[in-house]
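Entry for the shared binder. Reason: the reviewer on the internal report wants the predicted structure included alongside the sequence.
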Amino acid sequence: MTISLNVKNFDASEYLAPYEPKRVRRPIYLKFNENTCPLEADSQESVLASGFRAFARLALRMNVKDFLALGTGNGLDALGAIEIFDLDSVTITDVLPEIVAAARENVELHLEPGTKVKIYDYVGSLLSCIPAEQKFSLIYENLPVLQKPQDVDLKEGINSTIFFDREQGEVPEILDSYLLGSHYLCLQQAYERLYPGGGVITGISGRVPLEIVFNLHQTCGYTPELIVFDVKIQSAPETILPGYSQVEEEKNIEFKYYATEAIAIVEAARREGLEGQEILNAVQSDIDRYAMSAKEAWHQVRKGKKIAQGEWMVFGKR
């Protein structure tokens, strides 16, 4: 099975529009290849919009100098970090050299003249490809979690952005059941790569209970905090939902999705100045009226309806 999309160069200027131009040149025209997952046309439907809000919140209280975008894709996460933080270095990784080469070019082409930031790039899975002596103030990871089916080649199309070929390593049963193996292995590897006081932002779908995501961080030695919460349209539901429905049945657990009405409730709370744990506390009872399992969400999609999912941005401090 190959998942591929015909994607041309993309104007991503809207993604950084909320942030004052300092070191990243506008407009932002990103180059893509057949292995690079495209961005949503509406930036607010992208998980990266939530990621940038997480960056901005942390920039108010952390001195982030060395940043790692793990599984960078198109490189826009690295550009956002360069704009929002006062970085000395940015490191990008991905599992295919074609993806990393395009991402590095996207970063280099959009730096304002005189911007002094070192760029490092590596090809490989998780942090295994990064020299052991290299350390970071902040790591951002939004990794794929679906186990790679046997008929999937991660080198074809955008498969590597959706599926994860799990490396050897034990994963606690509860985390494995909720498909958090990639995040667990990442957080384990990341701990010794962080400067004291540094941490990891885990971008992960809110379909997984927050207490499980907190348990993930705590099991790996971090102190977790929900710094951004959002609800967005589920992208590629025909690819995502069957796998989660199957896991629900096999593991006797339930993931959480929402009817699209939940989106407006969260947006209204954000306009009131709420974010992170505060916004979740304010809206949870209201949006839970629109909650459903993956099985029900897949049923709704097959009837032609759109489905929403939550987005957690959890900061785990070392």
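Summary line for the report: The chain has one domain: 10-229+312-317.
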